[in-house]
User: Fold this.
Amino acid sequence: MLELRNITKRFGNVLANDSVSFAVQPGTIHAIVGENGAGKSTAMRIAYGFYTADSGDIVIDGQAREIRTPHDAIALGIGMVHQHFMLVEPMTVAENIVLGAEPGNAASLDLRKAAEEIRKVSNEFKLSVDPNATIESLSVGQQQRVELLKALYRRAQLLILDEPTAVLTPQEVEEFFVILRGMREQGKTIVIITHKLSEVLAISDNVTVMRDGRVVGDVKTSATNAAELARMMVGREVLLRVEKPDAKPGAALISVRDFSIAGRDGTKRVDKVSFEVRAGEIVGIAGVEGNGQTELIEALAGLIPGSYVSGSINFEGRDITRLDARARKELGIAHVPEDRHRRGLLLDFSLAENTILGVHYRKPAVTGPGSIFLDQKGIQRRTEQVIRDFDVRPPNPELPARALSGGNQQKLIIGREFELPPKFLLVSQPTRGVDIGAIEFIHRKIVEMRDAGCAVLLVSAELEEVTALSDRLLVIHNGRVVGEVDPKVTTNEEIGLMMTGGRAGTSA
Amino acid sequence: MKLYREILFPLIAVLAAFVIGGIVVLLIGDSPIQTYRLLIGSAFSWPDGIGYTLFYATPLIFTGLAVAVAFRCGLLNIGAEGQLYIGAFAAAWFGIKFAGASAWVLLPVCCLAAILAGAIWGGIPGLLKARFGSHEVINTIMLNFVAIALVSYFTQYHYKTPGDPILETVPIGPGAHIARLGKFIPGLPERIPLNFAFILAILACVFVYVLLWKTKWGYEIRATGANPSAAEYGGISIRKQIILAMSISGGLAGMVGINEVLGYRYRYYDGFSANYGFVGIAVALLGRNHPVGVFLAAILFAILLRGGIFVDAYTIHVSKDIVDMLQGIVIILVALRPDAIFGSLKKLSRAKA
Assistant:
């Protein structure tokens, strides 16, 4: 169906694709895996006409083709769904889908006809999308199906999906895979770019592994396993399981009582939650995203104004409910935020300036009378230490944070927070969008912190991550803690059921 | 690389503006070369050209810095015009009220009055934004009208010399006069109003640089401007930074009053500002919100401001409006970001190849 032959692409000094060749068989689901920056997105963007290759051929159905723009790609039956959706929020599904391919003539837009056709396509592929709903009323999973519809409406035979599951909840991923299998049965060909190995094994027929701009493996999925794929991706043995000794918890360090958080619209985001975290243990919070985890962590870090919060937080026997973020950090509460671009980093600031965020007003970051002036030497030392201890690459303190890969940005934040040093760690989505090598490293560091006597509260959308890391697991649903489980004995299915309110539903 | 771009792109914008302006001059029917010789060449004569150019640049440095500081905190201060009027009037008021005081007391008091009055006037929209979330652009624009009307009222009804046909206050005391640089520089006559406020403007550039890049306060201001969510996460009070940055911004704008009242006219003269507050936005934009850039951009705009007079006098068709046109083109080109233009040009040439 689609074949790349010796595709080479250079961005400045960076060789993004180095003679990349592989073939996608028609009617299959083909996974392309690799770490961030391995060149997988670049290769597929060349196939879709976003970039033009410096050299090499794209062969479609046995014929070499020139694809200069996405228009060319669409005409050849190639569709692409991006990680970040390209939808106009206030407009309807139908309006979004016909955008750029409007039916009817210039004077009149025949939306009704379009809606009819969209409904037909939607039913054919069991997407169950209402053409007349506005985008903003849809869930993220549904929005993604609109993107699929967009490509199908333009009669795509080959769909390229760039990290499609990154924005989905575990349940939505399952539904999404059912849809993809249905599409394969209807004869469509699908290329899925991902770095999650479990998904590769679950959905694909064939898999191409990329590393450093080159294809390092091209195998049948049934003939490989996660460990082998990880080794090819990273280029060395990778520990996929978290290895940790049993926790030796001490006294309760932080206890939260009847804690509620109201949203700006007045609804309860967190509803009378009580729990404690002891020194030397990792307490995980499992839940479908949007069930109050975000607000809970932000409130514990002191980032939600007191007027939205009720209940109490006790830290080392002291009521800290009314303390602001700076005062809490001074007590030893560190926070790895879930959204590193929005919360965690000043993207245009240098690594050095980023490593002092939150401690920029005290030693070693400042010097002189009244501690007014920034101490460039002190900042330099601290930055070099974080870069060294947390293996941030490239190790140049003057580089803007924007220039780093997601994994290295995350290591920078984690390094900054872990070297406070903290007594209590709030960690939210520590490995989101981070490559496998860095995930292993970050997990090890979190366990090290625990073993050094730190109390850790961990939130992750990856169920496997929270169950692997946590010593105790709280399950949250609709802003309430619906249960506490031991991740060593409880299965993921049981936890998944609790996350969706399953237990409450059966007992009511 | 970064520094190179920071300097190169504004420079390209300026050169491109001159090329476009030259075409317009040609179409009007004058010689671009002669027009530009008048426009720019007049700035380099000694002592008048250089003296007046630096004098014109002084208020633009202050307002350019004012806009830049606010911008580094993510705020658009459109109110430098109002702040400088309030600052100028405050300086004059102390100079009039305590006209008999000795220079050792009166001069610092008048200078501080200009700075503080401007800071308060700039701090008000900052406070409104921090407290109620109302947008600083709207509030600073509106406060311009209030400021201009307010000082005009006081001048007209309370501090005017009876019988004076011009709308200006009575003179300030001699103790409030700032020395003209001509007094100290051989060859520079004292009739040229370039005064110590220019030295203050240079010091203000240094102050802003040190504040923004070398102190923890500047770090907090810049962090707030770069990403308020991350600043908040770093324990920085965004509200405090907004009020602080707007006050500093207003204070810098208020310093225009030192140049105008204490160093030039020795009284408050209604409507003295040649849109310094608004040109300051252009100065900051061209100067990339950096003190060095602001200084250079202010000099450039001062050259144009002065050169415009000669263009008016000595060309047949072109008027001094060419200055406004050039300023406008420069701003559009800077706002367009030359790197973006180059990027699309490259794409275009590749598509054609």
Q: What stands out?
A: Chain B touches chain A at residues 213-217, 219-220, 222-223, 226-227, 229-237, 350-351 (CB under 8 Å). The CA atoms of residues 4 and 10 of chain B lie 11 Å apart. Residues 103-132 of chain B form the longest helix (30 residues).
